[in-house]
Design brief:
With 325 residues, the protein is α+β, with helices and mostly antiparallel strands. It has a single domain, classed as Amidase signature (AS) enzymes (Alpha-Beta Complex), CATH 3.90.1300.10. It is built from ten helices and eight strands. An eight-stranded mixed sheet has the order 1-3-2-7-8-6-4-5, with helices on both faces. Strand 4, helix 4 and strand 5 form a beta-alpha-beta unit. Helix 5 packs across helix 7. The longest helix has 21 residues. It is globular.
Length: 325
Amino acid sequence: NPWDLSKTPGGSSGGSSAAVAAGYAPLALGTDGGGSIRIPAGFTGIFGLKPSFGRVPAWPLSPFGTVAHVGPMTREVADAALMMKVIARPDARDWHSLPFDNHDYTAKLNKGVKGLRIAYSPRLGYADVDPEIAKLVKTAVKVLASLGAHVEEADPGFDDPAACFRILWWSGARALAGQLSKDQKKLLDPGLADVVEQSMSISLDDYLDAVKQRGALGIKMRTFMERYDLLLTPTLPIPAFEAGMLSPMDDGTGKWVTWTPFSYPFNLTQQPAASVPCGFTESGLPAGLHAVGRMFDDATVLRACHAYERAAGWISRRPRLVQAA
């Protein structure tokens, strides 16, 4: 992590986020099957967008199926909007991809947030959040309100869908591992290897029940978003933890879902969601504001994040580069 080399940049697109944060690259592509664009964006203080599912075509298709998204990772929101004009172009090989609409994602970036209806959910009704992170996010929400958005505190009203997500994601991991040779399986990250082992106990009934639960969650969020243009939460409940650890307490492999409660629900619902930097802890680690939009309304997510980015000014803060020995 460029802000503290002893800390993790997050993952799985952690290399991309670290490179962009350090200024080694102006932009990068990330993949997000449970938060892997937004998690590292939050930990490294850059912007990351998980577009609406199907907005950015992908080939080959991911073994993680319809929770897997592809999107931009940049220092500035405007660069991500520019990337979307390119990467959202059609590719017939992805049969999940949305019809091409040639949308200019940069056109309304400067429209601001005046009049937008925004729900702010500090905990999504179930997550525990570090007090420093909670304070930074609450302050960020006030900035958007000061810009003319109509903000009210509201929870979508669903229980933690971690069990449902695990079944679907773990099943994808098993499909991925099934393509590997014995020698290749020995090279798997311990966390992923543990996930694959756990997935062996998932039955067809378990999988179909998870699909049913996912559908109910999608309906709940579609209904909730009829009243709001955006939902705001923290990107992550904690700042970046020690590099080399699989979780903050190093409590075993395959448990990253326990510290990412705000990201994976919206892989299940397939909504556009982004992390934009919203300040720093006392120890100098970035925090992220998580903006979730209506399905297919990626443009409003970009517009709101751009308005906040410009008003808050965190974009001007850069990590200190260390001279090589």
